[in-house]
Amino acid sequence: MLDLTQVLAGPYCTMLLADMGADVVKIERPGGDLIRSNPPFVDDSGAEAYGGYFQSVNRGKKSIELNFGDEEDREDFLSLVEEADVLVENYRAGTMEKYDLGYETLTEYNPDLIYSSIRGFGDPRTGETDRQGQPSFDLIAQALGGVMEITGQEDGPPTKVGPGIGDLFTAALNCVGILAAVNHRAQTGEGQYVDTGMYDSMISMTERAIYQQSYTGEAPTRQGNSHPTLFPYDAFETADGYAVIAAFNDRHWSDLCDVMGRADLATEYPTTADRLKNREILRAELEEWAAERETDALVDALEGQVPAAPVQTTEEIFEDPHVHARDMLVTVEQPGSDTDVEIAGSAIKMSKTEPRPRGRAPLLDEHREELLGEEAETTADD
Fold it and tell me: Are the CB atoms for 19 and 348 separated by under 8 Å?
């Protein structure tokens, strides 16, 4: 797999595939991926080859540095294309065509090639719009796709979701598309073009808001941690933190009322419709009950009967035995540092071909000799 991507959406997509066993060759622009120099670093940014951002989403890949403006580098690239199964790029629409390296050209060198693009607004080949060619980042995609409008407190501003879901969800969908294309080629021998747009992906992810608009004619907006059609399904402040409670069906509601010692609430508000209609009254009851208990005590009281969980910090995630039992923290080398670092493991678990990070991220141009038979200008000590 040839990976011509940088920053987050593209590298995350190819990282998923690398974890699942793909031989991913990261083809980097002169100077390398823009995020190589992004913090955090363990100790010394001058000594370490890259920061945590690059390490996390480029683990297990190979690297070669090529300049598409250089004829010799273009020829080297085309020699790799001839042997490739899949190519992924996340440039603006038209960028590859500037170098005469677009999909149509590359399929002349490799007719079976699966060519995949991740762009802010998709590619004209699959649906042309006037937004194509515009730059896009996670923030732009979340804003346009309706995510920010439905995220945040009722009386607060539109709010970005913490993780870069405009990139990450797009990347996951693109990975699915690539695997579907690989399956199609295995059955028919045909390669094809796979295109995933960030704006499109956010609309796909906010599917609830789409059907709400269609069914009710009203635009959904922010309502904090609560749910538009379920209650209780919310976060509640405890004596020492926050806990979430999801007791929206009748049985869980009855069990919650039993734990609270409030059988009267179960009797007075027995149905989902009753609870939704009176959600503010019930929220006040739950807030008062939760505020008198520490998080662990509240969760322990509900566990096994009512879905509940603490709102954890990352520090608490690192201490959670479940996380370690599921191999969700993986130790890798940090070049230029005497300390190993931990990155997120693969959430995809398989009984025969277990996905896993396959080593650290590459040094820039580290695999030139392996890929082209040429000695790399950089060394492992650079």
Answer: yes
